[in-house]
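Re: weekly structure request thread

Next one in the queue (554 aa):
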Amino acid sequence: MANPSAVCNGHLHHHHHQKQNNVLKSGVCKKNGITKGMKKNGVSNGTLYKKTFIEHFEQAPMYVAVLTFVGFGVGTIFGYLRDFMRAWGLEKRNIAEEREQQKDFVPLYQDFENFYTRNLYMRIRDNWNRPICSVPGPQFDLMERVTDDYNWTFRFTGRTIKNVINMGSYNYLGFAETEPNALKTVTKELQKYGTGICSTRQEMGTLDKHVELEKLVAKFLGVDDAMVFGMGFATNSMNIPALVGKGCLILSDELNHTSLVLGARLSGATIRIFKHNNMQSLEKLLRDAIIYGQPRSRRAWRKIIILVEGIYSMEGSIVRLPEIVSLKKKYKAYLYLDEAHSIGAVGATGRGVVEYFGMSPDDVDVLMGTFTKSFGAAGGYIAGKKDLVDFLRTHSHSAVYATSMCPPVAEQIIRAMKCLMGLDGTTQGLQRVRQLGKNTRYFRRRLHEMGFIIYGNDDSPVVPLLLYMPGKIGAFARRMLEKNIGVVVVGFPATPITESRARFCVSAAHTREMLDTVLNALDELGDFLQLKYSRYSKSSHPELYEETRFELED
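Done, posted below.
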């Protein structure tokens, strides 16, 4: 087993740097690049999975991988050439550099680490950080900007690009809206409480709105109690250190979000990584942890906690919760489930992956989620047993040091959650959940039919479309914007170097006409840029099905 610190430094710092491990020996049948929940240890998984579990992770043709590396190679060569020209004054240096008086200091701006940013990212930088000037609903308005120096700086033209179809925001249920009747209660709370609290929860920052929201969250999730926080990222990074520390073991999925990674590192606990959604890998780590205990001393671990997400936001995959819960119970470990992308987005009534798999919330020790996506607001929650929540009220860094959630935001969450629960006297919330499911399955099915390689679960509203080659990242995003469609494109180092992608987020607010407009544009662009790589080939990681040992690289 690799040194835990080496594992942490070598792998855990990546947000989504490893390819999805799409093939699991336990609980999966593999055919044509598709994983399907079937059997576990030769026994039908009917007792674990109450519905068909299908995920797609198809391998691109070999020539695509070769051309992708060639593209990065050519970009790197020209990067070194341009650095040479900058060093000799033949090209203007726009990047931050050390002042002449500090040349003998330890460098503040690491030159080589900045190589990728200044020579590769800068060439396609215009596809990120585009400023919008409207609510991020199914459509938005975009401030037009141009560059006169190859993306080093931008200037605004004063023109607004109207009614751009929004395929990038996490507005899964369409609650990011400005309809006056919908926001009536939010406006009322804004007038009553103002915008800020100016205090922490443990001092003068707990309002009746917070108490109301926490009771509603607990009721929505079917648990004893809940605590809310003003920032979704900090809900993970500031609460994990309160739950585990030195002498504890964290088993973390290799594709976990940076907030989970940071929280794990800050805790001081030993961190070990298991292959994404791979139950063999997880069970191997659990078994070794029980048998061998802590390094050197061989004492038993104080706690073992498994960190996973409900929906993985770069792969579109859904956690194999039934199998993880089974392993957790078998080895007496704790389970921390991050439902940032899954709460509201999956499940018959929007209650996340626990409901999606027909399981009890009592099967998960720590339920975490955010209000920044499906609820169109900000902040996050931790929910579970009353003892857990009471402990966090005292020991959470967010509770002690962070400013409380502002009241209008709390009211927005209450309004959206009551709508989902039907407490507003309508069935609009349930209709939104069902519409999101319909839109998701329609969008994914059409992309498959067109011949694109897309990743993830059939029910996941996060839809990654593989672009692969670095030159196609910029071309794809720019041409989609020309067609009045806003997309998110992602490349290395946020993804593996050979797996650049466009990530679509489907919303219940998207009409069929909007989706058809996007699909028609994708069909045309897929032919123009030659992006239709799908051959229903085998997974690129078939060997993982046959692995009996799981050694983690340094």
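The chain has 17 helices and 19 strands. The radius of gyration is 24 Å.
Next request, please.
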